[in-house]
């Protein structure tokens, strides 16, 4: 009879063990729950930067094919990128020939610079 009572006591978990396990599990869930908003924001920012790179390259390519392009200009993009703005600046490239021009395109979204592209071209 004693053996049977001992074996019944050793089966399963005590209330204290269950409370500790639930406490540890809740801490782990709370920590993991805080990571999701962070990764969501990082994904949004990454998407914005990718779009900004594409738009900056587009402005630069459009400006390269114009023979008499403006030295500097600012503007916005068409739908669905109307939140993005660009600023194009061109300056003579020092150290090179007279026909070299440094071209820079800055892309911003909500007044915050996301990306810029800079190159030297021959005019």
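^ structure tokens above, recovered residues below v
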């Amino acid at each position: 009879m004693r053996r049977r009572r001992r074996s019944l006591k050793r089966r399963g978990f005590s209330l204290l063990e269950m409370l500790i396990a639930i406490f540890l599990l809740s801490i782990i869930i709370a920590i993991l729950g805080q990571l999701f908003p962070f990764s969501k924001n990082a994904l949004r920012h990454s998407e914005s930067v990718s779009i900004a790179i594409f738009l900056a390259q587009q402005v630069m390519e459009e400006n390269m094919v114009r023979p008499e392009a403006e030295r500097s200009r600012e503007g916005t993009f068409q739908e669905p990128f109307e939140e993005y703005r660009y600023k194009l600046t061109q300056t003579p490239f020092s150290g090179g020939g007279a026909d070299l021009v440094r071209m820079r395109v800055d892309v911003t979204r909500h007044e915050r610079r996301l990306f810029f592209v800079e190159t030297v071209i021959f005019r």
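The longest helix spans residues 15-65.
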